[in-house]
Amino acid sequence: MAINLHSFLENYFEAHHCDILSNQNGVLKVQLNEKMDRALMNRPFYWHYIKKMGRDGDPMQLTLISNQDSLEERGERIHFGSPRLQQILNHLKENERFTRLFQVIQANQNTALQPWLVVNIKISYIGKHKKDEVFSIGLNLINGIMKTEMMESLSDKEFGMKISDFCYTITPIIKPISGYKRILSVLDQYIQDLDHEWAKESLQELENEMNLLKHFYEGAYDEELEQMEKELRDLKERYQPKIQIKVVNGGIFYIRGN
Fold it and tell me: Does 222 have pLDDT greater than 80?
């Protein structure tokens, strides 16, 4: 059910008009443009200097290795929870949270486009350790069909900001907010069906740490007890298991029906 990380990266860089220099065996080499270099490579002083000199600048190349079994060494290994992926997700969240796109079609007769609500969501399992999962789910707002790995299924289609000639959109039967609630309901059920041994381990670790701390402060005075209470609260914040669901981005995609 989780999104294919490599396909997600492909779609991300293609959507931001970066050239894919090579793409094989889970190794993606990308030529960044200026906008994406500024967003990802943390070179503000370089770009300030280049622009002050009146030059175009030289955006960097980025090689990302999503296949953890790859023997390729020249590149940056990326996985769920890695700083680079978190940076990419934050960039999407801050700049492109919601969009509306139309499938590009060369049509010579009236062609209907159906509205799909597409939502990319990150689920974080936070406790003794942290684990992230990213899901891409699409819901047809006409007939209620739901698909997982939606962004991957759209990768072979071209989209634009304007509707193509001879195309028209069908008015949604399901309101986007209702569709979003359906998607959350599916994810809630997915979470309930998981093995939550990680949460039990985190609670056990919390209990052990709290007992150790209380033993350390045994016989302490009032001021020391106040410090103990603060440290107990910090322990609970660190180890208390919780699950967070965050929308990375999403939108309405108008797609020709099969």
Answer: no
Contact of 84 with 78, CB cutoff 8 Å: yes
Per-residue three-class SS string for the chain: CCCCHHHHHHHHHHHCCCEEEEEECCEEEEECCHHHHHHHCCCHHHHHHHHHCCCCCCCCEEEEECCCCCCCCCCEECCCCCHHHHHHHHHHHHHCCEEEEEECCCCCCCEEEEEEEEEEEEEEEECCCEEEEEEEEEEECCCCCEEECHHHHCCCCCEECCCCCCEEECCCCCCHHHHHHHHHHHHHHHHHCCCCHHHHHHHHHHHHHHHHHHHHCCCCCHHHHHHHHHHHHHHHHHHCCEEEEEEEEEEEEEEECC
250 token code pair: 């999403």
Average per-residue pLDDT for the chain = 89
Range 156-181 burial, b when 16+ CB lie within 10 A, else e: eeebeeebbeebeeeebebebeebbe
Tell me: pLDDT of 2 over 70. Answer: no
For residue 195, give every residue at least 6 positions away whose Cβ sits within 8 Å of its Cβ, in sequence order, or none: none
Say what the pTM is.
0.62
**Is there a contact between 249 and 97 (Cβ–Cβ < 8 Å)?**
yes
| CA 108 – CA 106 distance, rounded (Å) | 7
Q: Which of 158, 258, 36, 106 is nearest to 47 (CA)?
A: 36
* In contact, 199 and 127? CB cutoff 8 Å: yes
pLDDT exceeds cutoff 60 at 3: no
Residue 1: the pLDDT is 36
User: Whose structure tokens read 């009146």?
Assistant: 54
